[in-house]
């Protein structure tokens, strides 16, 4: 389910209308009847509509579904991707799309560029993808049978990520610059740094350690717990100083798991974030601190601001938060932190925890950011379809 923009220039204005209609129809139809697509597109159910439908089906943006009651089409992830790319192009957020730099369980990360050629990051949320990957989850999915819920939930994850990134950025937290959001996608600035996971040695682990823990505390003072604060979601830039030392500048990413300090399990998530950092510094750098904590109760004693409440009042409502929360729980979506814990459980007793998990899923969960993707022009007009327009 990789983004493939190769065919986007062949999509005619009429095709876009029909694709949009298929999307609208799929909000309340698992299979959108062809006459409804025509009606929503505002086109007469004639040759035009059928030509568009067949064009769209040929490039996999919609898929024909034969149903007991009627035939129709459903929007595919590819179709949703194209609609989002189309909107980003129209709003001049994205001009071209380049290499994929990461594949998560619930997202794809690509380099993209704006019209000025500035490199950015496109994150495509793909909730529900895991459901199709594992037999067990697939059974659950079939049992729940929530039509088009992957589409809606992926959008919720993108909205949540974008709203929190905006709020955090406003308060000067070290996060990427949020540049745009459409459907299940978020566009943000590209951070020229490696995930901490890939850093083998640091000159002074104590100061980076202290900085990361103080970030967890500062987040709590703003009403928030990252919920997935670990070596995958902390990008560390190594910046040479004039005095010859190298300073390490962390940037926090990946916000769909963010929880409010009023969440019933807030303290658990706070402690887990702290434990992730402690464990990583111990294992990787052999660094342990004698100081206990930080503790949730202390961190939330003096609140500076309630970003959790602020975001709730903006684009990501309480209702949306709840829906996403329930879905993630039901589908066992637990971020990287859950993986790390499971990883270690598996290490300890020498066997996989979930036999239904396909081989290689763990490795695939986080493809490291290759430096070459950052420094070299990712948008090579000769090998990528590049421009979307
Ligand atoms: P997931 O939810 O799949 O874990 P993340 O947002 O954590 O997605 O991104 C996955 C990986 O993609 C990160 O570990 C990082 O290597 C890379 N990445 C994500 N966002 C950026 C960014 N803004 N700049 C540079 N690399 C990024
Ligand atoms: Mg991540």
TrEMBL record:
Cofactor(s) essential for the protein: Mg(2+)
Transmembrane segment boundaries: none
Keyword Membrane attached: no
Name by which UniProt lists this protein: Serine/threonine-protein kinase RIO2
Family according to the record: Belongs to the protein kinase superfamily. RIO-type Ser/Thr kinase family.
Reaction equation(s) it catalyzes: L-threonyl-[protein] + ATP = O-phospho-L-threonyl-[protein] + ADP + H(+); L-seryl-[protein] + ATP = O-phospho-L-seryl-[protein] + ADP + H(+)
Keywords: ATP-binding, Kinase, Magnesium, Metal-binding, Nucleotide-binding, Serine/threonine-protein kinase, Transferase
Highest taxon of the lineage: Eukaryota
GO BP terms, alphabetized: maturation of SSU-rRNA
Biased composition annotated in UniProt, kind: Acidic residues: 336-367
Source lineage: Eukaryota, Fungi, Dikarya, Ascomycota, Pezizomycotina
PROSITE patterns the UniProt entry points to: RIO1
Entry's EC annotation: 2.7.11.1
Species assigned in the record: Bimuria novae-zelandiae CBS 107.79
Residue span, RIO kinase domain: 66-305
InterPro entries in the cross-refs: Kinase-like_dom_sf (IPR011009), Rio2 (IPR030484), RIO2_wHTH_N (IPR015285), RIO_dom (IPR018934), RIO_kinase (IPR000687), RIO_kinase_CS (IPR018935), WH-like_DNA-bd_sf (IPR036388), WH_DNA-bd_sf (IPR036390)
GO cellular component terms, A-Z: cytosol; nucleus; preribosome, small subunit precursor
SMART domains in the cross-refs: RIO (SM00090)
GO MF, one annotated term: protein serine/threonine kinase activity
């Amino acid at each position: 389910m990789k983004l493939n923009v190769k065919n986007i220039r062949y999509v005619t204005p009429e095709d876009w209308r029909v694709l949009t209609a298929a999307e609208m129809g799929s909000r309340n139809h698992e299979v959108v009847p062809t006459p409804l697509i025509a009606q929503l597109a505002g086109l007469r159910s004639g040759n035009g509509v059928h030509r568009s439908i067949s064009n769209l089906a040929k490039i996999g943006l919609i898929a024909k579904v034969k149903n007991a009651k009627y035939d129709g089409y459903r929007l595919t992830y590819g179709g949703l991707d194209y609609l989002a790319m189309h909107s980003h192009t129209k709003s001049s957020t994205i001009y071209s799309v380049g290499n994929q730099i990461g594949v998560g369980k619930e997202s794809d990360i690509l380099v993209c560029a704006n019209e000025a050629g500035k490199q950015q990051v496109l994150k495509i949320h793909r909730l529900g993808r895991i459901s199709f990957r594992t037999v067990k989850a697939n059974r659950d999915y079939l049992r729940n049978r929530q039509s088009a819920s992957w589409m809606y939930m992926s959008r919720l994850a993108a909205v949540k990520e974008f709203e929190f990134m905006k709020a955090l950025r406003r308060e000067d937290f070290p996060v990427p610059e949020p540049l745009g959001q459409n459907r299940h996608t978020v566009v943000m600035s590209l951070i020229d740094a490696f995930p901490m996971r890939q850093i083998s040695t640091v000159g002074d682990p104590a100061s980076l350690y202290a900085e990361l823990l103080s970030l967890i505390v500062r987040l709590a003072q703003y009403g928030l717990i990252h919920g997935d604060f670990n070596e995958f979601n902390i990008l560390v830039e190594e910046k040479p100083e004039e005095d010859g030392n190298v300073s390490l500048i962390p940037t926090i990413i990946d916000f769909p798991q963010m929880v409010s300090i009023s969440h019933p399990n807030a303290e658990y998530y706070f402690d887990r974030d702290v434990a992730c950092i402690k464990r990583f510094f111990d294992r990787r750098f052999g660094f342990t601190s004698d100081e206990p904590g930080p503790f949730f109760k202390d961190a939330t004693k003096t609140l500076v601001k309630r970003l959790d409440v602020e975001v709730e009042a903006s684009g990501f409502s309480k209702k949306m938060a709840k829906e996403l929360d329930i879905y993630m729980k039901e589908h066992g979506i637990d971020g990287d932190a859950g993986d790390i814990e499971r990883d270690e459980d598996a290490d300890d007793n020498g066997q996989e925890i979930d036999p239904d998990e396909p081989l290689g899923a763990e490795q695939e969960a986080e493809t490291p950011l290759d430096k070459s993707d950052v420094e070299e022009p990712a948008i090579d007009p000769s090998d990528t379809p590049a421009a979307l327009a």
